[in-house]
Design goal:
The protein is built from 13 helices and nine strands. With 310 residues, it is α/β, with parallel strands linked by helices.
Length: 310
C-alpha cells in the first residue's frame, strides 16, 4: 500500500525489546533487497496500545522509507507493537499491503533482567532500585493495569514477558506471513537466522554471513553519570536531525561507549530468578503449545521443556 504514491513499510520487526531487534534490523537492512527505515522505531501504530490512541498521518509513516528505491522489502522495527493486541494487529493488516512480521522472543527472565539494567543505564528508574524492587513495582502496576499507561512505561517489562497473552494473536492473524525468531539462535548462529529469514522473504540468502557483525544496542554501565545525562540529553535534542543519518549516529554511539560505557555482565540474584521462572512457567507452557501448533519444533531450552500440566 502507498499514500500519495509513496510506499509504506511492508516488513516489520514487531518486538520484543531486548531480544535482538536492533541487531536484526541492522543486519537485514544491509541486504540489497531490503531498505531499512530512516529511524528504527517508527512507532507509527504504537498509540493504538492505549484506549483512544490514534496513529499519526500516513504521510509521516511513508516518509520513514521515502529514501528507498526499488527494493522488495521496506523494513521498520518497533518493539512496542508486540503487546498492542488486536488493535495494533488489525491496523497493521489493514494499512500495509501483504506485510511480513518478525517477532523476536527471549527467555522472559533474562529479558526482564536486561530490561532492568538498560533502564538504569538510561536513568529511567529511581537510583538504587534493585531487581527485586523493580519486579515488585512491575507486578503491582501489572495487577492494576497501570503498567500500560504512558507514565509507567518503564514498568511494562513483566507484562511484555507474558508472551502467551499476545503472541497467539499474532500467529492467528498472520500465519505463514509471520516468523518467530529466538534470541538464543540469534546469539548462537546469527548468519543462519538471517539466511533463514532471507529465504522466507524470497531474497538471496547466499551472502547472509556478510550482513552480520557484532550485537547492537547492548546494555552497558556508565563510568560517569554526568556524562551519561549529557549524552542522553543531546541524543534527545538531536534525534530529529540525526534520525536519517544512521552512519553518524553509529559513529557517535561508538565514540561514547569507548569513553563512558562499560559492558555489563552482572548475575541475576538466584532467588529472584527462581521466583520469576516459577511465575512465567504456566504461560510458557501455553506459548510452547501455540508455537508447536504453528509448526515450530526446534524450541529453545526455556520453551522446549514447557508442557501444560495435566
Amino acid at each position: 500500500m502507498s499514500v500519495a504514491g509513496r510506499p509504506l513499510p511492508n516488513l516489520v520487526i514487531a518486538g520484543v525489546g531486548k531480544a535482538g531487534t536492533t541487531s536484526l534490523f541492522r543486519w537485514l537492512g544491509r541486504h540489497p533487497d531490503v531498505c531499512a527505515s530512516a529511524v528504527k522505531e517508527t512507532d507509527h501504530f504504537a498509540p493504538l496500545r492505549h484506549e483512544g490512541g490514534r496513529v499519526g498521518p500516513l504521510a509521516d509513516y511513508a516518509a520513514t522509507v521515502a529514501h528507498c528505491g526499488d527494493q522488495r522489502w521496506r523494513l521498520e522495527a518497533s518493539p512496542a507493537y508486540c503487546y498492542g493486541g488486536e488493535p495494533v494487529v488489525r491496523a497493521l493488516r489493514a494499512t500495509l499491503q501483504d506485510p511480513r512480521i518478525v517477532l523476536c522472543l527471549r527467555d522472559p527472565v533474562d529479558r526482564l533482567w536486561s530490561n532492568h539494567r538498560d533502564l538504569h543505564s538510561r536513568g529511567s528508574l529511581p537510583p538504587g532500585m534493585d531487581m527485586a524492587a523493580f519486579v515488585a513495582a512491575c507486578a503491582r502496576l501489572r495487577a492494576s493495569g497501570e503498567d500500560r499507561l504512558p507514565r509507567h512505561r518503564a514498568y511494562r517489562g513483566l507484562s511484555i514477558g507474558h508472551y502467551e497473552e499476545y503472541v497467539p494473536i499474532w500467529l492467528d492473524a498472520f500465519g505463514d506471513d509471520l516468523r518467530v525468531v529466538f534470541f538464543d539462535d540469534l546469539v548462537a548462529d546469527p548468519a543462519g537466522v538471517v539466511a533463514g529469514l532471507c529465504r522466507w522473504l524470497g531474497i538471496d540468502a547466499a551472502g547472509a554471513a556478510g550482513l552480520v557483525d557484532g550485537a547492537h544496542n547492548r546494555t552497558v554501565r556508565h563510568r560517569s553519570e554526568a556524562l551519561r545525562r549529557l549524552a542522553y540529553g543531546l541524543n534527545t535534542l538531536g534525534r530529529p536531525v540525526l534520525r536519517s543519518r544512521s552512519g553518524i549516529v553509529r559513529a557517535l554511539r561508538t565514540t561514547y561507549e569507548r569513553l563512558n560505557a562499560i559492558p555489563e555482565e552482572p548475575a541475576l540474584d538466584p532467588a529472584v530468578r527462581s521466583d520469576l521462572a516459577a511465575a512465567h512457567a504456566p504461560g510458557l507452557a501455553v506459548l510452547a503449545d501455540a508455537l508447536r501448533a504453528a509448526g515450530y519444533r526446534d524450541l529453545p531450552p526455556w520453551l522446549a521443556a514447557a508442557a501444560v500440566a495435566p
